[in-house]
């Protein structure tokens, strides 16, 4: 695969060279996406750069080289987050930070994360060519372990930067190979102690902006290259258990059963209709379920399931959670079983501020792109940072909405248009 791999040629073959303007160079972006894609390339043509791996570190080193060529001052914190800084005319002002991540899921694509990093870096390339210096300092950020594939606990670098870390929990993490968090960190030149000290003085940052592939189909269906993220949904996880009576599948009459799985099935079938009752952006999913005793000839006596509930607004997410709890209790009564429920995770959603969305709309209009808004159901580093600072997000069209898969694809035309919008946005808020 490595000998025949050529992401650059695939990207450039249908590229419109007229989009390379104002110092933004699609050819350069394509070459850099290709160079990053070779690090951790899988046999399926996917990407394997899990968090705190040598591959993630190698990708960071590659990008740091490009930062140095641009004359950026580079710092790396104790969590491995990298910041390339361009001084502004007034270096005492808080910085505008833009970036994403370079780690991937075990067999992911080549745009999720790297596109955001390279888009942010391309701004500096354009400014350098045009002799432009922003008023504020501008930083290109690479956050560590956004995906969380190593420890099933993501957004690690941005949590470290903002201080949103439970160190006791973090140090207790173990990867699938039995390696402790401390050991994994030491293998890439970091430590639990350095990680704990990575929290940044957030007064040094004015705002954060992230470019990312959509990971959904809305832009693809509307044939739009770029969209404005209206908010980032925070997940709320609800564990629900149904308790019936286990019994012999052959000897227990159908009229004398307390089947926990039948009750759970009835409950799950109702969840699909509930999000639309509270919000257009709310969703709910049952993706994990355990049946006890899980015997082929035994009536299930207990079912434990998890409901993932998301919305970009906390009040409607809370309302949806209550509806789901009420549905679980009603279902248990209807089927003659008992139920219990408890919250296991609750992350505050981040709606994007209206003034920021207005700047984004103006940037889109400046490049004759219809300004459409869409929510992000997935978590991003902007979700964590948005709990502390003003954030903006731009989505770039993803073919068929595919993500976390070797088939993940965003055309170079769409990627470059995303950079143009990012540049217009950053310049507008820098001058505001």
UniProtKB/TrEMBL annotation:
Top-level taxon of the source organism: Bacteria
Residues in Peptidase M20 dimerisation domain copies: 234-334
Keyword Phosphoprotein: no
Keyword list, A-Z: Hydrolase
Pfam family, one: M20_dimer
Membrane-crossing segments per the record: none
Protein family according to the UniProt entry: Belongs to the peptidase M20 family.
PANTHER family listed in its UniProt record: ALLANTOATE AMIDOHYDROLASE, ALLANTOATE DEIMINASE-RELATED
NCBIfam families per UniProt: hydantase (TIGR01879), PRK09290.1-5 (NF006771)
Protein name: M20 family metallo-hydrolase
Species classification: Bacteria, Bacillati, Bacillota, Bacilli, Bacillales
